[in-house]
Amino acid sequence: MPAATGLRARPAQLLIASALLVSLALGLGFVALHRFRDMRGAAVDPVAYPLTDDQAKTQVLDPAREIAGTLKGVSASYLLMSCANADEPPYQGAVYLNFDVPGVLETPKYFDSIAAAMTAKGWTAAMPPNRHPGGRAFSRNGVTAIFFRTSDQAERATMQIYGECRNTTDHRRDPTGWVDVTAALPR
After folding, report:
1. What is the pLDDT of residues 21-30, one digit of tens each?
2. Whole-structure pTM value
3. Contact of 143 with 163, CB cutoff 8 Å
4. What's the distance, Cα to Cα, between the start and end of the chain in Å?
5. What pLDDT, on a 0 to 100 scale, did the predictor assign at position 154?
6. Neighbouring-strand partners of residue 78
7. Three-state SS annotation for the chain
């Protein structure tokens, strides 16, 4: 009887079996390790230096005051929103500023002037928001500001200011909703 050759040879079968076992072991290890470490990112990591509710509000309201002083027809709303999902901590403060803009053709130049003023005050340009053509994004000290022309009102724009995800107070049972903070802005 001739000796087995190719894939039927005993050494080839052992090599294939060991390759399959190593692949299986690595796959099981990958699944097991990722059950222990949630892959949603920094938003679910324990917060080293938590913020109180007032600190989270101040973190976004101070930049809103700084920026709103140069804008016309400003209104503002504040919300403490979850960074993890709809309700669970940690939370971040968010201020939405709505303001007047010139006509469609003048808006890019107007946005350039807002961007220049923000850059002069220490804000750093970030990647532009992909859902808002012509919009801009900036960050400073953990706070992010995104502004863009409002799609349903041609003469208005929105600036969204988001703080850090560092408020660990449990607000799941709190009534939620935007709070008008226009009176807290300079006139």
Report:
1. 999 988 888 8
2. 0.74
3. yes
4. 99
5. 84
6. 95, 179
7. CCCCCHHHCHHHHHHHHHHHHHHHHHHHHHHHHHHHCCCCCHHHCCCCCCECHHHHHHHHHHHHHHHHCCCCCCEEEEEEEECCCCCCCCEEEEEEEEEECCCCCCHHHHHHHHHHHHHHCCCEECCCCCCCCCCEEEEECCEEEEEEECCCCCCEEEEEEECCCCECCCCCCCCCCCEECHHHCCC
Q: Is 53 exposed, middle or buried (0-12, 13-18, 19+ CB in 10 A)?
A: middle
Please report which confidence band the pLDDT of residue 180 belongs to, taking 50, 70 and 90 as the band edges.
very high
Written as six digits, the tokens of 115 are 């961007």
- The answer, yes or no, to whether residue 92 has pLDDT greater than 70, is yes
**Amino acid symbol at 111:** F
Written as six digits, the tokens of 53 are 């509710």
Q: Which residues contact 59 (CB under 8 A, 6 or more apart)?
A: 51, 93, 142, 143, 163, 164
